[in-house]
Amino acid sequence: MTTPLRRAVEQASWASLLPPHRADGDDQPIGAPLYLDALDLAPGRWLTIIADAADRTYPVPLVAAGSGLRRARAGDGAAEALAGLLAAGSREVGAFSLTGWHAEPVTGEAPIDVDQTNESVVLGGRGVVKWTFQATEGPHPAPAILELLERAGFTGTPRPWGLVQWRPSRTAAPRLIASVTAYLPGAVDGWTWAVEDLRRACTEGPDAVRAPGRRLGELVARFHLALLPTHRPADLADVARWQGEALADLRRALEVTTGAEHAQLARHRDVIAARAVPPSELAGTPMLLGHGDLHVGQVLRAGESYAVIDFDGNPVVPPAQRTSAQPPALDVAGMAQSIRHAGLVLRKHHPELDPGRVERMTGVFVEAFLAAYRATLAGARRPDLLEEALVRPFRLRQVCREFTYAATHLPRWAYVPTGALPELVKGAR
What we know:
This protein is of the alpha+beta class and 429 residues long. The chain has helices spanning 3-11, 14-17, 78-87, 141-152, 190-204, 207-226, 236-256, 259-267, 269-276, 319-322, 328-349, 355-379, 391-408, 415-426; strands spanning 34-42, 45-51, 57-65, 68-71, 91-93, 96-100, 109-111, 119-123, 127-131, 160-166, 175-182, 232-233, 286-287, 299-302, 305-308. It folds into two domains: 3-182, no CATH class; 190-426, Aminoglycoside phosphotransferase (APH), C-terminal lobe (Aminoglycoside 3'-phosphotransferase, Chain: A, domain 2, Alpha-Beta Complex). It starts with a helix and ends with a helix. This is Glucosamine kinase.
């Protein structure tokens, strides 16, 4: 910690510290920047921890610039320097914890110019450094999941190279502030490839979604099998928590929605409550550390390769819960429901397509995913990992959360839960 660095940080503007795409968006810092800590990356380059007046912490890569400093950009060498530190192995540096799993010699930095919550820099076309935008309260689920996947030899995610965590105090849980993974050239986001595959299926036939559905099912099953060391049976408290959360999600959706969306939810309130609440006899169902926020957008596709990403857990649940075991059915339900949502996105943007055809192809996609997931578990002699009785309740919970998300963050998304709910309350799979 150096006095000049502290002084420079606290004299800087938030606009010079935040990523350009976050400097004028929502969730802006309050008050003046407050310097908390810094990890030396290389001469004139630091990874700093900066707080705002609301005690929110922001990891900020900085570079010396003239007599001051600014946020490091691609080409400034901060990302290269971080990868170099992690290549030296795991260790503690003050309040920073460095974990290194894999290293490759890389030079050159390039930005990723897409909309993203955090900020990523491509290293030599082979690795990606992700600077976390906000270091939320720990513990963070990603370090434990990536460690397990690395030990299991799981290849269905971009290979983790390493990560950096920071503790605000000796007794506090660590917060994830940066990570490095392998880069997948030409990778396409799931909300793009899934919608496109469904469009092709509507004109070319169901094989266009059967193959990706199978690959998704195999990927998610192998992901869960790699996390088997965290397995435990659910107890009565777990079941009671699922039941309480289901009713809370419904209440929250009813509170925040208005107009036609609220009327639709209110009309089906009793059916949703009955079907979204898991039965009490599910104590004993298998639980393990899972993804927690799995949907098609969390799966990249590059050529014929599929990779699950973003092990941040569900952002709307408490930190301790994000690192707790959960039924694999939660991830399965999230993925199945998101495929349904991809079909609704397709209908919205391609109204010329026959809605019945879109619905049938979406069903083929979902069934291919579920069948491959079950078959992969059966092949590993662990068909018990999927508790079928939880899939529909978790899908309904997800739709309630989509209503809340649309009402509180993205009103134009309301057509998705509005279109998804009828299928689930009718009892169709």
